[in-house]
Amino acid sequence: MLDPNKNTIPRWVSLLYRYSQMYIGDRLKHFDIGRGQHIFLNSLYKEDGLTQEELSSYLKIDKGTTAKAIKKLEQQGYVTRKLRDDDKRSYHVFLTAKALEIREDVRAVLVEWRNILSQGFTEEEKQQAQLLLERMGTNAAHYIDTQKDQAGVCDESPHGR
Amino acid sequence: MLDPNKNTIPRWVSLLYRYSQMYIGDRLKHFDIGRGQHIFLNSLYKEDGLTQEELSSYLKIDKGTTAKAIKKLEQQGYVTRKLRDDDKRSYHVFLTAKALEIREDVRAVLVEWRNILSQGFTEEEKQQAQLLLERMGTNAAHYIDTQKDQAGVCDESPHGR
DNA sequence: ACTAACTAGTAGCAAATGCAACTATCTGAC
DNA sequence: GTCAGATAGTTGCATTTGCTACTAGTTAGT
Predict the structure, then answer these.
(1) With contacts defined as CB-CB under 8 Å, which chain A residues touch B119?
(2) Which range has the worst mean pLDDT, A1-5, A121-125, B102-106?
(3) What is the span of the domain harbouring residue A17?
(4) Which of A63-67, A156-160, B33-37 has the lowest mean pLDDT?
(5) Would B76 be classed as within a structural domain?
């Protein structure tokens, strides 16, 4: 019999990801903000005026995906784009008044979700969880980025690191 | 109370999820196993002969998604389905010899990924990470399932779109 | 100044995913 | 038994996502 509680890290990660998308998507759908957009909106709430390239690299999301998400947010009136003066290839993405209006509501959803996830955690455990996730994320990002740089270079040693 | 610096758990989760999909998908693509299938294959390696419904509920993945993934695995010759005798609505999903042949390779990919994620972790930290993820996953599952049970009971506002 | 290499963003495709509507089977209340 | 409601699975649709190829603007080497 499969024991749902005993499993690998990748399975928990994928479960947490899908549930997060469900929860956040559900809580934001009355703003017409879909599952693909909230992550960008939240990044802009942290720092307005980022370029698409900066959003992509911060979130580690493909630039094509970013372009489509930003395009949709723009069509919905949540952001505007302004061509940079000093580099006509790139755009600054700015939040509109409409986006700023719902800022606290949107951020609150994330805080609520975080609280649901860490229910029953001590403050110390919350910090520990955040830290460990961060370290795993950094490890993953570092590995993937390294691989990408070496794409085409043969065989990797099974020793890793 | 909104704390702007404490809502990053969802961001790390989504990063870890996407990178996991990339890594595993990349390492399994020469078996023609796409990003959507490996999770089902691994569940069946744990326990063969599950029904689609059991797979869906174990992985918390939509039954439509499960149907499509299993269909693809069947077309590729990795699984066969057998109608249950005692319930003609459901199918047992069985691994084929072809799937069993690559079992260790496929499982090894998961182990490798876990090792990448926990690089630089002490044994204690690894266990801690696993445990905290598990607790967060359980919290999430519990919350979402509870919500689902209550859907339609009280609200059901016919307001969509 | 020229041009090759690089970079930001876009477009098109295919796969994956969730949801809702549907079919077929099963269960339980009567 | 019969029929309403639940359950397993399928299908169609819309959204999201990553990849690759492409355009246009920028940088650096000569």
Answers:
(1) 139, 143, 160-161
(2) A1-5
(3) 9-117
(4) A156-160
(5) yes
Exposed e or buried b per residue across A73-88, where buried means at least 16 C-beta atoms within 10 angstroms of its C-beta: beebebbebeeeeeee
Question: In this structure, is residue B18 part of a structural domain?
Answer: yes
Q: According to the model, what pLDDT value does residue B141 have?
A: 87
How far, in Å, CA of A144 to CA of B42, rounded? 22
Cα–Cα distance, A100 to A103 (Å, whole number): 5
- List the single range of A64-78, B16-30, B132-146 with lowest mean pLDDT: B132-146
Q: Tell if the CB–CB gap between A42 and B117 is shorter than 8 Å.
A: no
Question: The domain spanning residue A26 has which CATH number?
Answer: 1.10.10.10
B108-143 pLDDT per residue, tens: 999 999 999 999 999 999 999 999 999 999 999 888
Nearest C-alpha neighbor of B14 from the set A78, A38, A149, A32: A38
* 3-class secondary structure, B19: helix
Q: Which backbone phi and psi does A95 adopt, to 5 degrees?
A: -75, 145
In a domain, A125, yes or no: no
| Cβ atoms of residues A112 and B112 within 8 Å | no
In the structure encoding, which two tokens stand for residue B108, read together?
């090894």
- The answer to whether the CB of A5 falls within 8 A of the CB of B140 is no
| A151 at interface of B, judged by CB pairs closer than 8 A | no
The full length of chain A comes to: 161
Q: How many domains is chain B built from?
A: 1
Please name the member of B9, B19, B140 whose beta carbon is closest to the beta carbon of A141.
B19
To the nearest whole angstrom, how far is the Cα of A81 from the nearest Cα of chain B?
Answer: 24
User: Would A38 be classed as within a structural domain?
Assistant: yes
The per-residue pLDDT for range A24-55, each reduced to its tens digit, is 999 998 999 999 999 999 999 999 999 999 99
